[in-house]
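User: Just a sanity check before I run the rest of the batch. Below are the structure tokens for the first item. I only need the designed sequence back.
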């Protein structure tokens, strides 16, 4: 929502909880944000995208390995991602690198002590050996 409020172009928000969607719609109306709210599970939304995607972002959705699985159909075509992670980010990155190769830049969160924004590009699934 913040990106939509500050004028980052049309922003599509995906939320499965109806009450949270209602709040997001109200916030978009009140702020004039250029946001489209989709009430859907991310797995369903990603399988049949109704829009072109320039960048992905997620916060408090899933561990990094699962986020990469969900995002892979887009990220392996060159779409970058920015994922907010907390204090366990180092462990999540280590786990994700067991299955994925990617370029990573870590940005310290300005609002969450110990949190980071993981800027991820060039995602590729690692080839399984043996």
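Assistant: Here's the designed sequence for the first item:
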């Amino acid at each position: 929502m913040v990106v939509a409020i500050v004028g980052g172009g049309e922003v599509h928000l995906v939320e499965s909880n109806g009450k949270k969607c209602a709040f997001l719609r109200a916030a978009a109306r009140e702020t004039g944000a250029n946001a489209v709210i989709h009430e859907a599970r991310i797995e369903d939304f990603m399988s049949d995208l109704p829009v072109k995607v320039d960048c992905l972002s997620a916060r408090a959705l899933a561990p990094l390995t699962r986020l990469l699985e969900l995002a892979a159909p887009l990220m392996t075509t060159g779409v970058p991602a920015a994922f907010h992670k907390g204090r366990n980010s180092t462990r999540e990155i280590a786990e994700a690198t067991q299955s994925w190769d990617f370029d990573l830049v870590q940005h310290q969160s300005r609002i969450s002590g110990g949190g980071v924004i993981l800027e991820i590009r060039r995602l590729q699934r690692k080839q399984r050996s043996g």
